[in-house]
Amino acid sequence: MMDSYTKKNFDKIQTHGNGTGFTASDFTDIADYKAVSKSLERFEDAGVIRRVLRGVYDYPRYNDLLQEYEALLLCK
């Protein structure tokens, strides 16, 4: 059972779709930074999202042709 801010975080991740990159600060409109970081850590532990770099996550997109998850492209 997810608490309300965790559910809102998950809904926001799904709304942006697979292949999207984000940081905890993208969710501070939902909860404070510490709560969001813990929520993202739980999603990572469950395999829902990936940690790309410290503090940077993505919601991976599966490529059927390659039979693997695509890499997140970080642009400046």
Keywords for this entry:
single chain, 76 residues, alpha+beta, Arc Repressor Mutant, subunit A, three-stranded antiparallel β-sheet, two-stranded antiparallel sheet, 2 helices, 21% strand, elongated
CATH class: Mainly Alpha
By DSSP, the count of extended strands is: 5
Helix content: 25-40%
Global Rg: 12 Å
The order of strands across the largest sheet is 1-3-2
Question: Given the structure, what is the number of helices?
Answer: 2
| Unreliable residue stretches | none
Termini, distance in Å? 37 Å
User: What is the arithmetic mean of pLDDT?
Assistant: 84
The amount of beta strand, in percent, is 15-25%
Could you spell the SSE succession in H and E letters?
HEHEEEE
Shape: elongated
**Biggest sheet statistics:** 3 strands, antiparallel
Oligomeric state of the chains present here: single chain
> What class would the helix/strand composition place it in?
alpha+beta
CATH topology: Arc Repressor Mutant, subunit A
What is the number of domains? 1
